[in-house]
Design goal:
Number of strands: 11
Shape: elongated
Strand order of the largest sheet: 1-2-3-4-5-6-7-8-9-10-11
Order of helices and strands: EEEEEEEEEEE
Strand content: over 45%
Largest sheet: 11 strands, antiparallel
Number of helices: 0
Distance between the termini: 70 Å
Length: about 140
């Protein structure tokens, strides 16, 4: 194994299927590296990225654009798993940098409805919200 070929160096590699259609893109163009797995229609089915500050993200797209998607991201606030449905519904689970965690549920109109949180000190809260966006008693 001492006679290995030199590495291939390029900004982008596109891997195609038997029909010549691009199905996988490995790229270092732009603000950060990406890996995209493409569907037969050419749209991204899944992608892995590093942003300009080297924080990773994973996005899973639904083949039906009217149905939910999922994302796992690290940002300057912490780590998040988010589920989105076009039209407003979403939910996410988070763990912030200070050690607090929680779940947030948003209804189909985009209104926050429930927050469940646990602070770094172990205290917990469950908060429900009304149609006006204000916490319920």
């Amino acid at each position: 194994m001492t006679d290995l070929p030199p590495p291939v160096m390029t900004q982008e590699i596109r891997i195609v299927d038997e029909q010549g259609q691009t199905r996988l893109v490995l790229s270092a163009k732009g603000s950060g590296p990406t890996i995209q797995i493409l569907r037969k229609d050419g749209r991204a089915g899944a992608s892995i990225t590093l942003d300009a500050t080297d924080r990773p993200g994973l996005t899973l797209s639904n083949p039906d654009p009217a149905l939910p998607t999922a994302a796992l991201e690290i940002d300057d606030k912490g780590a998040h798993v988010k589920f989105d449905r076009p039209g407003g519904s979403s939910s996410y689970l988070f763990l912030n940098n200070a050690g607090g965690s929680g779940v947030v549920l948003i209804d189909s109109t985009g209104k926050r409805r429930v927050d469940v949180t646990v602070a770094a000190d172990g205290s917990s809260t469950i908060e429900r919200f009304g149609n006006d966006g204000k916490p319920l008693p």
